[in-house]
Amino acid sequence: MTGWRSTGFEELYELGSGAQGRIVLARRAGTGEMVAIKYLAPELLRDPRHKAMFRDEVNMLVRVADPHVARLYEYVEAPEGATIVMEAVNGVPLREVLRHGPMAPEAALVVLKGSLLGLAAAHAVRVVHRDYKPANVLVERDGNSKLIDFGIAGLSGEETVAGTPAYMAPEQWHGAPVSPAADVYSATCVFFECVTGGPPYASGDTTTLRRMHEAAPIPAQGVPEALRPLVAHGMAKNPAHRPPGAHQFVTLLERLAGSAYGPDWERRGRIALGAATAMLAAAFPAAALGMTTGATGLAHGAAGRSARKASSGRRPG
């Protein structure tokens, strides 16, 4: 490893690096707690406005104490640079789980419920994720899921074009004020993929994907009949017709899941998820150690928002 080191930690080894900086696995001195430390690239810190945005956003997300969100612990500035310290998650990306095919409905419902609870915790401090997708969910061995990577997160009411096309809510495509309902839409798209094996709309052309999200019928018939109201409600084209927030959507989910799959649906779903994760964990040691982190994306998000305001919007990608 090169460069300066944040004090108070024993760094074990580097997990990854890129244009936004490098991330290391470390042990906190005194407690032995394992953490992921993101060293932000100097280029991201040259503008004082960027530093101010990092501070503001981290200060908000540090208050999100929820078992379904990878915790951000602290943002540290020094003359040599800046770091973000966060939880090292022992889990496998949902994206990798889905490579092995669709899930049983109970397992997919567990993923959706955990994700919604994590999103609700972020929404409580006015943060909208805006890029919920399978790559940004880690599934732990007990079946719990954690939301990561707030790379293009924004405050409720911001107007920018941002997201991943396969999961973007209709209003995100034209830069309407973002709200928690956009995260609900994205989470429902991922739930659809968990159950069916593919996203609700598929095209290699971004313009076609936009038209589908904005105007194509919701393909609810692709999911089990008992869960179609969940998909139809969560993917409503008009955000005013969706649940206004993640907590409200959880209430509908629990009612439909209990009615369709019995009172122990969640226990069975967790068992299935845990088994799938245990088989994959050995194949993805970097993910298990927290290489993909909210801290990594958070740094990009603050700098990116400043650039988008200056250039009228980042295109989805």
List keywords for this structure.
317 residues; alpha+beta; Phosphorylase Kinase, domain 1; Transferase(Phosphotransferase), domain 1; 2 domains; five-stranded antiparallel sheet; three-stranded antiparallel sheet; 11 helices; 10 strands; 17% strand; globular; protein serine/threonine kinase activity; Prot_kinase_dom; ATP binding; Ser_Thr_kinase; Ser/Thr_kinase_AS
Characterize the main sheet. Answer: 5 strands, antiparallel
CATH class value of the largest domain: Mainly Alpha
- Widest sheet: strand ordering: 1-2-3-5-4
Let me know the CATH homologous superfamily of the largest domain. Answer: Transferase(Phosphotransferase) domain 1
Strand content: 15-25%
- Give the proportion of residues in helices: 40-55%
Provide the number of structural domains. Answer: 2
Mean pLDDT: 82
Per DSSP E runs of 2 or more residues, the count of β-strands stands at 10
Q: Give the N-terminus to C-terminus distance in angstroms.
A: 31 Å
Low-pLDDT segments = 285-317
- CATH architecture assignment name of the largest domain: Orthogonal Bundle
* Secondary-structure element pattern, one letter each: EEEHEEEHHEEEEHHHHHHHH
Number of helices: 11
User: Which structural category fits the helices and strands?
Assistant: alpha+beta
Radius of gyration: 19 Å
Q: What is the third-level CATH name, the topology of the largest domain?
A: Transferase(Phosphotransferase), domain 1
Bulk shape: globular
